[in-house]
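Researcher: I'm comparing several assemblies side by side, and this is the next one on my list. It has 220 residues spread over two chains. Same procedure as the others: predict the full complex and return the structure.
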Amino acid sequence: NAGVTQTPKFQVLKTGQSMTLQCAQDMNHEYMSWYRQDPGMGLRLIHYSVGAGITDQGEVPNGYNVSRSTTEDFPLRLLSAAPSQTSVYFCASSYSLLGQETQYFGPGTRLLVL
Amino acid sequence: ELKVEQNPLFLSMQEGKNYTIYCNYSTTSDRLYWYRQDPGKSLESLFVLLSNGAVKQEGRLMASLDTKARLSTLHITAAVHDLSATYFCGAQKLVFGQGTRLTINP
């Protein structure tokens, strides 16, 4: 049971490049989410999903796309990277959005946009 | 709109002392979560608080929830160096506080 996995661990991009951050979980969780962590800002929700085929925007969705074709995977796409997207990105999952159980976080992806 | 605020944001304390981190949230929330993050690492779940008056304890950490005051606290008793970390509270599963960076000095 690997839990929540994220790839890559580190990435450097040039402004305007696109890329996909991968997130997968093997716990059969319906709820998955993406956060970015910036100094002094805590964690801010980018997008989330309550099940395959269902996604919604969080607090800071601009510049990011998501899709959820399977229960296991929830990739985050940066369409045209900007320096403001330099951050640490965390993926998380739990059984459901409204359930009382905690979320499990992946190890994070550190992204630097030059 | 649900907002979560923690204070203090930075806390430096000596081993053996007691202190409390506060987490205020702006609208009704029936769930409050506490997490710990070590430098360069991911978030680890500490406590899930589900009802008014809920209290949970693990070692030197104790968390409580007052839904009427929209306030949760994380109390550290007789701090030890190993508790140095950043602590986050989160309401529902969507909104987090800014985090409290706790440094415990020998």
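Model: For your comparison table: Chain B touches chain A at residues 4, 6, 9, 31, 33, 35, 41-45, 48, 50, 88, 90, 92-99 (CB under 8 Å).
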